[in-house]
Task: inverse folding
């Protein structure tokens, strides 16, 4: 399925491909996407410091491989993909380093939510973060993209390589589990 | 489902996590300054570009040509054809085995005897002379 590239994206991509303008164009990319990418990473890894490191890695990789980006997909989709891969790889490495299972990692994330100095909000917000942390990784990613980033299923499908139907099902299941979490922790 | 909406509706999408003050501005400036210089890729002319494209095919053609030459060379170096082998001619082998072509027999034939017998059969001296010449010529070739 051909992806329609926005006019602004096309201009930016053309400047990124040009050696004389690529650095200035990439600075614009950082300004535009650092915040949405940061939140996408942060919601997965929770800790601000880890999110900061992963965001830097994401942009560094994008800078290194920008010549390979031919504009077949939206620039944002390509960057989200890099950020997501970086985050998942980081979580896997952490699991191996600490020698813990997926379930244990969920508990560790829940604990770190309460411990992180850059986590605030009222009790409901905190509980929602903890409920999200109990979701399986794929459902957590889908829920974050849909609920927080308000992303369309089509773009999510491009990033995750999953059908729209499967994504809708994942989101529905995630919401059900969050509801269950609130019922059980009332 | 209305309960889900209630829960999610109570929470602001941006609520729950914060960042240090001015984080995004600082991050952008730091990130831009830390980007390494792009390594300049040497310019490639159209001719070089064409060569890079055809290079694998050229190498493959050269390889096949080499294999063909090698096979041809081995073929030429091989022992003479089996058709020329004396074993394929049983009559000649039998003649040798029976001593028909023995050198002693051939050497024992006297040229004069032949000439005399030719004269007796009615050949003219000129014709015999021509014969003698051809015999001499053959001898010189053999020697």
Result:
């Amino acid at each position: 399925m051909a992806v329609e590239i926005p006019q602004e994206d096309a201009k930016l991509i053309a400047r990124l491909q040009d050696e004389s303008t690529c650095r200035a164009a990439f600075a614009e990319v950082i300004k535009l996407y650092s915040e949405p990418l940061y939140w996408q990473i942060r919601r997965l890894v929770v800790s601000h410091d880890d999110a900061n490191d992963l965001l830097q890695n994401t942009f560094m990789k994008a800078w290194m491989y920008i010549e390979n980006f031919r504009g077949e997909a939206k620039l944002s989709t390509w960057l989200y993909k890099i950020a997501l891969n970086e985050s998942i790889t980081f979580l896997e490495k952490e699991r191996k380093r600490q020698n813990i299972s997926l379930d244990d990692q969920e508990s560790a994330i829940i604990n770190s939510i309460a411990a992180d100095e850059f986590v605030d909000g009222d009790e409901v917000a905190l509980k929602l973060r903890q409920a999200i942390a109990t979701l399986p990784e794929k459902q957590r990613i889908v829920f974050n993209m849909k609920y927080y980033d308000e992303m369309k299923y089509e773009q999510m499908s491009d990033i995750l390589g999953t059908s729209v139907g499967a994504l809708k099902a994942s989101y529905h299941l995630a919401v059900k589990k969050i509801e269950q979490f609130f019922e059980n922790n009332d | 489902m209305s309960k889900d909406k209630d829960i999610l509706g109570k929470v602001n999408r941006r609520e729950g996590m914060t960042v240090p003050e001015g984080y995004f501005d600082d991050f952008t400036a730091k990130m831009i300054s830390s980007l390494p210089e792009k390594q300049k890729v040497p310019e490639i002319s159209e001719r070089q570009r064409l060569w890079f494209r055809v290079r694998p095919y050229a190498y493959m053609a050269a390889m096949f040509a080499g294999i063909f030459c090698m096979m041809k060379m081995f073929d030429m170096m091989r022992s003479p054809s089996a058709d020329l082998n004396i074993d394929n001619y049983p009559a000649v082998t039998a003649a040798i085995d029976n001593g028909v072509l023995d050198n002693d027999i051939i050497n024992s034939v006297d040229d004069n005897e032949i000439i005399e017998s030719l004269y007796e059969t009615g050949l003219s001296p000129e014709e015999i002379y021509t014969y003698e010449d051809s015999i001499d010529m053959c001898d010189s070739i053999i020697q």
In short: Chain B has a mean pLDDT of 75. Residues 59 and 65 of chain B are 10 Å apart (CA to CA). Chain B touches chain A at residues 1, 3-4, 7-8, 10-13, 15-20, 24, 27-28, 31-32, 34-36, 38 (CB under 8 Å).
